[in-house]
Design a protein that fits this description.
Elements lengths: L1 H13 L3 H31 L10
Length: 58
């Protein structure tokens, strides 16, 4: 959650322009990718410990 907020603050600080658009794009990507990555890592750890079946989720 920290990176999207920092990128948003930097975009507001730079003002309207190309740099702000790039920073907002980075914020959006990191906000969307963070939960997905956390779920993938958690599922893999649970598979290694035998808490869930190995293989793709259904």
């Amino acid at each position: 959650m920290g990176l999207p907020l920092i990128a948003l603050a930097l975009a507001l600080e730079t003002g309207a322009g190309r740099t702000a658009v790039k920073l907002l794009f980075i914020a959006l990507l990191s906000a969307a990718a963070g939960p997905v990555t956390s779920m993938a890592v958690g599922r893999r750890a649970a598979q290694e410990e035998g808490l869930v079946e190995k293989g793709p989720p259904m």
